[in-house]
């Protein structure tokens, strides 16, 4: 079973260690009214936002007994933690998938808590909460531009696609250094070079401070 977060551009982030449990919280909304001497009454409303939460960790050292994928696929704990921080501030929804469990929903990262434990140097523990996202339906009433004056429901679409990630070159930078810091893998320097060959020129080592490079 894999737990994966995917961006609107198809970038996949697979959690390397499955949590012991995944908690899915569902609630129904209610409005409560106090009617004179009769007391309080609940009036059911629409469903509330669903929350999905779990805890796990990013191991520093690969262990095939609990790590997903191969050793080369294990992310550096600091890079993985920074990726969750990036997801936390994103303005567009992600897609969360749990294979073999039938879960495939658009979400936002609502909270992310990190813990460092003594005696386990390098490992990064985390708690994460996701909130499901849904499009807002807007009803047009009579008097608006609808045929026959009937109400029409239309969806207000939110673009789940991300804008290209960019980086401005600083003094002392190299493509491999940028790839390590921004993409978590120095070997991806060639990917950056291919995307920016017109800007950089024929020599990938000839990047200059101030150049704006596309990373993805």
TrEMBL record:
InterPro entries documented for this protein: Bact_Kbp (IPR052196), LysM (IPR018392), LysM_dom_sf (IPR036779)
Domain LysM: 165-215
Region named Disordered: 143-164
Any Pfam family hit: LysM
Protein name per the record: LysM domain-containing protein
């Amino acid at each position: 079973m894999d737990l994966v977060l995917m961006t609107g551009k198809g970038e996949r982030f697979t959690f390397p260690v499955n949590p012991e449990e995944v908690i899915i919280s569902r609630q129904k909304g209610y409005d409560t009214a106090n009617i004179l001497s009769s007391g309080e009454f609940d009036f059911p409303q629409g469903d509330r936002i669903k929350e999905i939460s779990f805890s796990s960790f990013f191991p520093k050292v690969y262990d095939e007994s609990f790590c997903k994928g191969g050793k080369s696929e294990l992310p550096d704990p600091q890079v993985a933690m920074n990726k969750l921080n990036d997801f936390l501030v994103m303005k567009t929804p992600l897609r969360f998938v749990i294979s073999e469990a039938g879960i495939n929903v658009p979400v936002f990262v609502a909270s992310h808590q990190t813990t460092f434990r003594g005696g386990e140097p390098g490992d990064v523990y985390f708690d994460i909460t996701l909130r499901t996202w849904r499009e807002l339906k807007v009803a047009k009433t009579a008097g608006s531009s609808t045929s026959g004056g009937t109400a029409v429901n239309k969806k207000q679409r939110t673009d789940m696609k991300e804008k290209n990630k960019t980086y401005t070159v600083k003094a002392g930078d190299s493509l491999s250094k940028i790839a390590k810091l921004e993409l978590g893998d120095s070997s991806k320097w060639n990917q950056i070079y291919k995307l920016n060959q017109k800007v950089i020129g024929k020599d990938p080592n000839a990047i200059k401070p101030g150049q704006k490079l596309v990373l993805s």
